[in-house]
Design goal:
Strands 1-2-3-4-5-6-8-7 form an eight-stranded mixed β-sheet, sandwiched between helices. The protein has six helices and eight strands; from the N terminus they run ββαααβββαβαββα. The mean pLDDT is 94. The protein binds coenzyme A.
């Protein structure tokens, strides 16, 4: 990204017992375990979360996420317990539009940790990272209209509902209507 040196950015942010940090090569086994336990939940909405997900997929993801971070093309974070370092899921700023200083925000939380506030806290940390460190001004969250937990995370992160878009998402080969939310920098600063 113009004006930002990825090498100068902190690789971790922590608050309220949750940490988001840059992926590391040693994360593979934990990612596979988290994905495998979450096929019935996360896999409902994210195609890549399937029974076939294995070590090579996790290795490829870490390599991709690391390369993208180093080019400031995407900032993908592992979500971990700040005390135990247990791997809880992922949150990421992708589709970074360098000219308009905007990005898309995505998140997932492993099944055994859902409904404990992890998703909301991870999203808040990523939004803070985007506005305070990357100096982005607009974040978009696009989730299936039927995906109530994801919509609640968006709302609890201070996002404004901008409307429904027909067939915006393809999930397991099906076109789904999406709820589109946005967060602009001043509103987000109040939430983080
Ligand atoms: C969306 C997701 C990240 C939420 O993570 P989480 O850690 O469970 O979220 P939180 O604990 O912060 O809870 C957020 C809201 O979702 C609700 N929620 C969480 N799990 C739920 C479930 N299984 N059923 C119904 N509501 C649920 C919580 O009650 C809370 O809403 P409330 O404040 O009205 O009570 C998680 O459900 C997930 O990984 N989903 C699959 C991937 C996905 O859809 N990603 C979003 C793509 S844009």
């Amino acid at each position: 990204m113009r004006g930002i040196d990825p090498g100068m950015l902190p690789i971790e942010r922590e608050s309220n017992g949750i940490s988001i940090r840059k992926y590391q090569p040693g994360d593979s086994a934990a990612i596979v375990e988290a994905v495998q336990e979450s096929v019935a939940t996360v896999g409902t909405w994210l195609d890549w979360c399937s029974n076939g997900y294995g070590r090579s997929d996790a290795d490829a993801w870490i390599a991709h996420a690391t390369a993208q971070w180093d080019e400031a093309g995407m900032f993908a974070f592992a979500v971990v317990d700040a005390t135990s370092s247990d791997y809880l899921g992922g949150v990421g700023l992708n589709q970074i539009d360098q000219d308009n200083r905007s990005a898309n925000l995505g998140y997932w939380v492993r099944q055994s940790y859902e409904s404990r506030g992890v998703g909301t806290q991870a999203a808040r940390l990523a939004v803070g990272y985007a506005f305070e460190l990357l100096k982005l001004s607009r974040i978009e969250i696009v989730c299936a209209a039927m995906n109530r937990p994801s919509r609640r995370v968006a709302e609890k992160t201070g996002a404004r509902f901008e409307g429904l878009q027909s067939g915006r998402l393809s999930v397991h080969g099906q076109a789904l209507d999406a709820a589109v939310y946005t967060i602009t920098a001043p509103a987000a600063r109040r939430q983080v």
